[in-house]
Design goal:
Blueprint (H helix, E strand, L loop, with lengths): L3 H20 L12 H18 L4 H4 L1 H6 L3 H23 L9 H19 L4 H13 L3 H24 L10 H11 L21 E7 L1 H4 L10 H9 L3 E7 L5 H14 L4 E6 L26 H8 L1 H13 L2 H14 L3 H21 L2 E6 L10 H13 L3 E4 H5 L4 H4 E3 L2 E4 L1 H17 L7
Parallel strand pairs: 1-2, 1-3, 3-4, 4-5
Antiparallel strand pairs: 6-7
């Protein structure tokens, strides 16, 4: 390594990589995925020590660097590829997103990459050689191409960094990388011992009135960072002391899971009221593997390098799904219409109402009041209204209480009712309105602080 400053930075990167690697404890069985650190550090220190203390070996060690430094344009291009590859491996393997702290393993990788970058950049480099390469670059017709590639890489890195720091949020269909990391940051970290995004249920007592809220992502608060702003938590606050509102809901559930898991939960925690949060895609369980699947309206990247690139990086993921797929009114409109038309199919409706009947019969047998909260698509209330009314009317004909959220939300600005421009799940405001509507209905039924 020529130059005192380059040597200092090179050795410093090796030391920092070692500190981080030791902190990662790759020799522990539970850290088996990080065992590569041991081999990497051994190679790093062999090369570094031999280079510093065995002058005769320096020409051999410098062969790769000299090969890179043969021409100015090749030198620049290899360094560009190296930076892109090092950062790409970091992102793909560890996905730094939102406020996720960088682990010791990640720091080890980054300092190892820095050590390698300094090697390629400066090992054996003299000021004379540097001036020669600078002249080659300035005279090359390809210099503009490399400048453009460097600019695009910098913009890509900047876009990735911004999205990962400020745009970890959801989309309507859970297709995107942003949604995956939203679930890691805000959903899975708030699960109770029963696997639901809710505090632990209170133990039974004669003074306690238990309310179960069951449903899918609408009930689980898809896209809402703070669980205290979901309608089930807001409803519990309104009901006051002596009430425990328990969430029995998970994203992706359909009606069969919702009914079965509610009945299972009730064996341990018997409720007085069950609130079924119903959205039109709760019929999806019978559409998934058929030509009626509404998700067929969206195009997925074909398997291969392109699909992996779109999956692993936020910027292409955002462009491909959010900007190309979700902003298409034809695609999203057809998706909603596909859900609504599924309710016109007699076979679908018969199978779905059989699940409704199972919940209704269970409620009558156990003396549990059933309340159905029927959600429209908040971004297209009128477009989903026929199916909403069909579901609600079925429960009303069976003597159950129904709250139509289309009546509550109608006339309000769409931007206030949805999580974001690419996610039509109910917003914080829509959840607040749902809690108020449910509380009013429960008061009419004799529940609540004033009962």
């Amino acid at each position: 390594m020529n130059g005192r400053i380059a040597n200092v930075f090179w050795i410093g990167a090796a030391i920092l990589a070692t500190i981080a690697g030791v902190s990662a404890q790759p020799w522990q069985p539970e850290q088996s995925a990080d065992v590569w650190i041991i081999a990497a550090l051994v190679i790093l220190w062999i090369i570094t020590i031999v280079s510093l203390f065995v002058p005769a070996a320096r020409p051999v060690i410098g062969v790769p660097a000299r090969w890179v430094q043969r021409s100015g344009m090749g030198y620049w291009f290899v360094l560009l590829v190296y930076v892109a590859a090092a950062l790409g491996v970091w992102v793909v393997n560890w996905q730094p997103a939102y406020n996720k702290p960088v682990s010791a393993t990640e720091f080890c990788w980054l300092f190892l990459s820095l050590w390698g970058f300094i090697y390629l950049l400066a090992y054996g480099m003299t000021s004379t050689h540097a001036r020669v390469m600078g002249g080659q670059i300035s005279q090359s017709r390809l210099a503009g191409v490399l400048i453009t590639l460097t600019f695009l890489l910098m913009m890509f890195i900047a876009g990735e960094a911004w999205l990962r720091r400020y745009y970890v949020t959801t989309d309507a269909f859970s297709f995107t990388s942003m949604t995956y990391w939203w679930y890691q940051n805000f959903y899975y970290k708030n699960l109770n011992s029963r696997g639901f995004r809710d505090p632990e249920p209170q133990p039974d007592s004669p003074e306690l009135t238990r309310v179960i809220v069951t449903g899918d992502s609408f009930a689980a608060g898809h896209g809402i960072d703070d669980i205290n702003e979901t309608f089930s938590q807001l409803l519990e606050q309104k009901l006051g002391p002596g009430y425990d509102v328990n969430l029995v809901a998970q994203s992706g559930w359909d009606t069969p899971e919702e009914v079965a898991k509610t009945i299972e939960f009730s064996f341990t925690y018997p409720p007085k009221v069950v609130i079924l949060s119903y959205y039109l895609n709760d019929i999806y369980w019978m559409l998934r593997d058929t030509d009626q699947n509404p998700n067929r309206n969206f195009d997925f990247a074909p398997p291969g390098i392109l699909a992996n690139f779109i999956r692993d990086f936020f910027l292409p993921n955002f462009i491909y799904y959010n900007l190309i797929q979700f902003t298409s009114p034809v695609r999203t409109g057809n998706h909603l219409q596909g859900l609504v038309s599924a309710y016109d199919n007699p076979d679908n409706w018969a199978r779905q109402t059989a699940e409704f009947d199972r919940l209704i019969a269970w409620g009558e047998e156990r003396g549990v009041d059933v309340v159905v909260l029927v959600w429209p698509n908040p971004a297209d209330i009128e477009g989903s209204e026929t199916a909403v009314r069909k579901v609600g009317q079925y429960f009303e004909d069976a003597g159950e209480q129904v709250v139509y959220m289309s009546d509550v939300l109608r006339g309000l600005p769409v931007r206030d009712l949805i999580v974001n421009a690419f996610d039509t799940h109910p917003s914080v405001e829509a959840n607040r309105l749902a809690a108020e509507a449910l509380y009013s209905r429960l008061q009419e039924m004799g529940y609540g602080a004033s009962s």
